[in-house]
Amino acid sequence: MKLTSKGRYAVMALVDLARFDNINPVSLRDISLRQNISLDYLEQIFSKLKKNQIVHSIRGTHGGYVLTKKPNEIKLTNIFDAVDEKVKTVQCKKDSKKGCNGKSTKCLTHNLWDELENHINDFFEKKSLDDLIKDNVERRV
Predict the structure, then answer these.
(1) Residue 16 and residue 26 in contact, taking contact as beta carbons nearer than 8 Å
(2) Distance (Å, rounded) from C-alpha 107 to C-alpha 105?
(3) Chunked in runs of 10, what are the mean pLDDT values of the chain (141 residues)?
């Protein structure tokens, strides 16, 4: 199981945005510099986040992005869904009778990996941007 850089960078960028957007809209350039993420890549990510109403853009010299909801209302699952990131521990489809090994039955450890996927997704459903901001502040103290 592996999260791609798209999912990880989306979370990093939104935590950065959440830390600064209560003052003014945040530019992608600033996020790019602080988080060392390519500006082009951030533009692609934020296009998806905007389309899925996680962020809102504000035009102008002092423009940038703001969150559409409070950080405690944005779950990591919402972010992953917005950027088409899927957490999968098995290659087969859950409802399929065929297994990931191409045979007509599921592999012997299928239920183990399926249960792990459920735990991971539950974890991401319970974590919000606010949790990550607080966690970061507490570690710096």
Answers:
(1) yes
(2) 6
(3) 85 94 87 96 97 94 92 96 86 64 73 89 95 72 41
Grouping H, G, I as helix, E, B as strand and the rest as coil, residue 122 is helix
Which fold would CATH assign to domain 5-140? Answer: Arc Repressor Mutant, subunit A (1.10.10)
Token pair in block for residue 14? 């939104």
Question: What pTM value is reported for the model?
Answer: 0.84
Q: How many Cβ atoms are within 10 Å of 65's Cβ, its own excluded?
A: 25
Residue 124 near residue 76 (C-beta atoms within 8 A): yes
Question: At 55, which helix (H) or strand (E)?
Answer: strand 55-58
CA 80 from centroid of its chain's CA atoms: 4
